[in-house]
Request: fold
Amino acid sequence: MAELTFKGSNYLKQKLILATISGKAIKITDIRSNNGGLQEFEINLIRLIDKLTDGSKIKLHATELEYVPGILLGGKIEHQCCVDKSIGFYLDVLIAFGPFCKHPIEANLKGVTNSPDSPSVDHYRTSAFNIMKRFVIEDDSFELKVFKRGMKPLGGGEILFKIKPVMKLRTLQLENSGMVKRIRGIVYSCKVSPTFANRTVEAAKGTMLNFLPDVYIHTDQNKGKLSGLSPGFGVNLSAETTENVIYAAEVVSNVQGTLPEDIGKECANKLLDEIYRGGCCDSTFQWIMILYMALSPKNVSKAVIGPLSQYSIKFLQLLKEFLGITFKLDTYEEEADEDETDDNMRSPKVVLACVGVGYSNLARRVL
Reply:
């Protein structure tokens, strides 16, 4: 089997995901050759992938990785995630593999549930799941339960993530994002005063009420064993449109010198920025829509998204390398409203179109 070779540590997770899905072996060299080689969270991610597959061959060196993927197995697993990254970093793998595993995934993950450097479990539950529902047939195909919240640096959180396999995905046609009709949110706190959550709610709600009246933000105040091992708080806001498109934003604080009012306002402004970017998914999970479109049946899939993130651009390049699929990108032309006189009032959007590779769940046939 011919293997693909790469250099450096950038986008390591993307390469491992696409290598497993495509069945192509990879070799990555010069991984932080002057800065310690593979990090603990990357080795931890490779261990998770090994648990989800059968027959994978992995060779690890200080600055080098060789990976020959096996079949996607799934099943019931428990995994202690590295606290350097949040659980969301590892959920990407489960979301990418889940629909194509031999058995349903039932993963008990422990670690940091909410962190500034990766999307939180709340962000996945509101925004990522909304995208996934458009590609699978059954509405109950996935579920995420938070048993304990865990903040950095020590974590202590625990979740249960379930996802059922499918034979194939659906083709997507999604060009109208609709108008925002309501705002929902959650403010969570661990080992801090309840006033932190209440002040954050008031600040975030006060900002969003300037734009529409249907705003509801609830609190999740955790104490004792349910609050993990470190103090902290944060807020996740989501905006739902008339076409069931969801934009989400989040800000997490580790308490030190941070005012709850600043956290609430910052998150509200980040959500407004996501709404301004527009499209039919938020910028954080563009890659999920791109991946599922690429793996869909051999028909034309089309979707409008906001400006491509750097992460999405690299993902498109790697998809061509691993699966040989090329997306057609066009600028989305939309009619201006009567009260819009400035062309700069709208964010430039992109029309993504591709013919899916017709990826089917081969593991389900190996019974």
Observations:
- The first strand starts at residue 4 and ends at 7.
- The chain has a mean pLDDT of 91.
- Residues 170 and 349 are 23 Å apart (CA to CA).
